[in-house]
Amino acid sequence: MAVSGIDALGKDVFMRLLTTQLQYQDPLAPMDSTEFVTQLAQFTQLEQMNGINDTLGSLVDVNTSLNKYGAAELIGKLVQVEGKSVILSPDSQPVLNYQINEDSQAVLVQLFDEVGAIVRVLEAGPQKAGFQSLSWDGRDGNGNRLPDGTYDFQVSGKSLLGSPIEGTAFSTGQVTSVSFEGGMPFLRVNGEKVPASGVISIQPA
User: Which residues constitute the domain of residue 136?
Assistant: First the structure.
């Protein structure tokens, strides 16, 4: 969109032109008072808009700083975020948290090792739409205890009408670091980089 008038000139150029116009006007035919007042009003409006832009810019800078500070405060905290990983530690039975968007007649949770191989398929049966959880004993499909480490899981199922549905997995873990990309904070949770905006809950470590 083309810019015209005072916005195109800028306030400094506009003020110089207005001053020069007043200096060299014909004393016998001075500038019309209505036109003069209109130009001053336009200049005042431009000044106000510049002031508003400066204020908004300052507010954005402050908000960005607060976001960074707030994200840094999450280091060491236990959070729940959207993510597909879960940590298996000695004698633990991880809880797999997820969400499905509609009632289902059957829900399956597949667990994968670090190379992407399926190590276990858990059948949750019929479930209502919303947040759900399923406990995993840390064993594979043959009943063998799996090595400690980080595993991924994926949720799928069938709706009441038989159509396939996908669930959203949520990861629970400790925030080990925070990074910033494009001014947006990202957390490192269970080895995954996730946006801080996706935090569902925060607990003391």
Answer: 78-203
Q: Do 196 and 99 share a domain, yes or no? A: yes
What mean pLDDT comes out for the span 181-205? 80
Q: What is the pLDDT of residues 86-136, one digit of tens each?
A: 889 887 888 899 999 999 999 999 999 999 999 999 999 899 999 999 999
HEC assignment per residue over the chain: CCCCHHHHHCHHHHHHHHHHHHHCCCCCCCCCHHHHHHHHHHHHHHHHHHHHHHHHHHHHHHHHHHHHHHHHCCCCCEEEEECCEEEECCCCCCEEEEEECCCEEEEEEEEECCCCCEEEEEECCCECCEEEEEECCCECCCCCECCCEEEEEEEEEEECCCCEEECEEEEEEEEEEEEEECCEEEEEECCEEEEHHHEEEEECC
Q: In terms of domains, do 191 and 100 share one?
A: yes
What domain count does the chain have? 2
104 and 164 share one domain: yes
Residues 124 and 195 in one domain: yes
Where residue 186 sits, what CATH number does that domain have? 2.60.40.4070
Q: Mean pLDDT, to the nearest integer, of 137-152? A: 93
What is the structure's pLDDT at 61? 46
Question: Quick count: other Cβ atoms within 10 Å of Cβ 190?
Answer: 20
Pair (107, 194) in one structural domain: yes
